[in-house]
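Please, is this right?
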Amino acid sequence: MTTLNCFHCGEPADGEPPITLELQGQQRHFCCQGCKAVCQTIHQEGLTGFYEFRTEPAVTPRELTRSELDRIRELDHPLVQQAFVAPVKAGQEAQLLIGGITCAACIWLLENHMKQQPGVQSFTVNHTTQRARLVWASDKARLSDLLIAIHELGYTARPYQADEAEQALKAEHRSMLIRLAVAGIGSFQSMMLAFPLYFELVSDLSTDFVDFFRWFSLLVATPVVFYSARPFFTNARRDLLSRHLTMDVPVAIAIGLAYSASAWVTVVGGDEVYFESVCMFTFFLLLGRYI
């Protein structure tokens, strides 16, 4: 049975009854009503080019809760806006932090969608920082309505606060450092264990010692694969679901196959294991992304 994926976000669309929508003469399947509603909005605004140009799947949208709506409405209060809204010649200006952006097509979609909203004078998004600059006429639109318009596409928007952004950046930086450290320690340890095999010293070691080195190497490589290399597998799964291949796919396949084959040889028996290659490959890839 062929598995259908959501046309919008790439997740499995196997619900019963099926959620479908006819677009440009083709029947499209969706995983939820939220994705269908977003797709309808994109189609009605003439922005279907988003689906042609995107290189990553869109995030799965979710409905705002009552408490979330109340918090957004509170942003209309003048006293609250003093913290992040500044008057400009064209109206009011606010810096926003946008969540859910996966590729450049998301920015194109957001900017063109917001330009169609009443009162919006300007809306630009920085892909690197995912910060948006919104200029709007406060006598024609409320800020909360414009934020809700962003949520209608499945993205999130909240006032940008330097302290909060700095904390998020530090948390991401810390997480990457930990992954890099685990991979680095794993590479060092696995290389030490592989040293006798590199210099053909196996004949001088008993079978028990060789098995011990392999099992210990498996123990060392496991956190490297399942923790340090997790971003590669996460990105590869997302790319496969959206049928847009990036370098994360072959990287994840290489790491997964080398680790699995080495684990199989360790358990069943065989000639070669590649735990040190897995660890070093992961380490240098993470190092390249970090710097």
The longest strand covers residues 91-99.
